[in-house]
């Protein structure tokens, strides 16, 4: 049983938290490009040094850099055997095309794309709260607004691509953590994707 999922949503939609819960339930690893970049920045690696200024400003890391990271990670045996839950990738049309090609080379494709829908004001409030708790260096007010703008112009449109393919599940991202997890499970259950 291989389950390949993607969770998409604006920053502050709770996709990181929900992604972990869903991945755990399906026994698949979370592949979060944001987490990979943060770990590299923290560890002072060559990649970390290369992307720190970009992520701090709320800009997107170049597609070739990000694509290589994702294809390396998805080529590892746990992801090949069990599948994965992607969080934060793909984020634009070029990345969708890259992922399509990569998965096609394995004879695979995404089983479902979960879109967490949260109004912009709610996203801003949640990220601002997280900024005080976690102290992420890219959670300044200007960077938050910039990241949400990029989400709206570059990332939100990819949902339409997946909707046309019939794999998109739109989930109301406002509610308690448990309510939202249950909504996601219900949508995946309806697709016959078993836990
Ligand atoms: P996230 O935790 O997903 O919000 O990612 C944090 C930051 O990492 C983003 O603001 C980008 O600078 C960078 N990043 C993460 N995923 C991607 C991606 N798919 N493409 C480009 N940059 C990314």
Bound ions, cofactors and other small molecules, one mention each: adenosine monophosphate
Separation of the first and last Cα atoms: 10 Å
Rounded Rg: 16 Å
The percent of residues in helical segments reads 55-70%
Mean pLDDT: 96
Quick one: overall form? globular
> Per DSSP, what share of the residues sits in E-state strands of 2 or more residues?
5-15%
Count of helix runs? 9
Q: Kindly name the structural category.
A: alpha/beta
* Largest sheet features: 5 strands, parallel
Strand order of the largest sheet: 2-3-1-4-5
**Strand elements, count:** 5
Listing every helix as H and every strand as E from the N terminus to the C terminus, the arrangement reads EHEHHHHEHEHHEH
Can you tell me the residue ranges where pLDDT is under 50 for at least 5 consecutive residues? none
Question: What key phrases describe this protein's structure?
Answer:
single chain, alpha/beta, 9 helices, five-stranded parallel β-sheet
Task: Note the topology.
Blueprint: E1 3-8, H1 15-26, E2 30-32, H2 33-42, H3 46-56, H4 63-74, H5 77-82, E3 83-87, H6 93-105, E4 112-117, H7 120-134, H8 141-164, E5 168-172, H9 177-190
Parallel strand pairs: 1-3, 1-4, 2-3, 4-5
The chain binds adenosine monophosphate.
Residues 11, 33-34, 37, 54-55, 58-61, 66, 88-89, 91, 95, 138, 147 line the site of adenosine monophosphate.
């Amino acid at each position: 049983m291989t389950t390949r999922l993607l969770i998409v949503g604006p920053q502050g939609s709770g996709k990181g938290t929900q992604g972990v819960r869903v991945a755990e339930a399906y026994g698949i690893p979370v592949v979060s490009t944001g987490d990979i970049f943060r770990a590299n920045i923290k560890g002072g690696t060559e990649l970390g040094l290369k992307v720190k200024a970009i992520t701090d400003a709320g800009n997107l890391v170049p597609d070739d850099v990000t694509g290589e990271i994702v294809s390396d990670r998805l080529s590892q045996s746990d992801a090949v055997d069990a599948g994965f839950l992607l969080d934060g990738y793909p984020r634009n049309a070029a990345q969708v095309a890259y992922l399509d090609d990569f998965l096609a080379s394995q004879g695979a494709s995404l089983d479902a794309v979960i879109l967490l829908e949260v109004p912009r004001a709610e996203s801003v409030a949640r990220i601002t709260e997280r900024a005080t708790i976690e102290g992420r260096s890219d959670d300044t007010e200007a960077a938050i607004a910039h990241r949400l703008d990029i989400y709206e112009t570059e990332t939100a449109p990819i949902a339409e691509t997946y909707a046309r393919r019939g794999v998109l599940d739109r989930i109301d991202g406002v509610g308690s953590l448990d309510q939202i997890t249950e909504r996601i499970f219900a949508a995946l259950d309806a697709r016959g994707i078993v836990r």
